[in-house]
Amino acid sequence: MSRQFLRFVIAGVIGFVVDAGALYLAMKAGAGPYVGRVISFLLAVFATWQINRRYTFDRQTDRSIWREWHEYLLAMAFGGVCNYAAYVVAIHMLPDASWTPLAAVAVGSIAGMGVNFLSAKLWVFRGARR
């Protein structure tokens, strides 16, 4: 399980880069830090799903890819609630600076990681061999 968790963390780091990059792009396009975060979170979930289904867990071939995506999105939404709550708290507590959204995304990502790993392992990719 430790190897699997390490792969999950690596996927999460890549997801963090996608999340933070998309957030800054969304904010530059006019979305605020809250709407931008919803957009960036969805993009990060898609990116981590692609990585986790191929490298962290063995994809179960008896389910449709659409069902797997919907289950993964729902599972990540549970961790996403923890993630977003921590993000909002961090936005309010940190100084108003250009690096604040990035730091808040990091705080949120760490807050949701454990919930996300367990829901992916025990529900979405249950029975994976890795």
Automatic annotation (TrEMBL):
It is a multi-pass membrane protein. Keywords: Membrane, Transmembrane, Transmembrane helix. InterPro entries: GtrA_CellWall_Glycosyl, GtrA_DPMS_TM. The keyword Protein biosynthesis does not apply. It is found in: Membrane. One of its GO terms (cellular component) is plasma membrane. The chain crosses the membrane at residues 5-25, 31-51, 72-93, 99-124. It holds the Pfam family GtrA_DPMS_TM. Residues 7-125 form the GtrA/DPMS transmembrane domain. Signal peptide: none annotated. GO terms for biological process: polysaccharide biosynthetic process. Belongs to the GtrA family. This is GtrA-like protein.
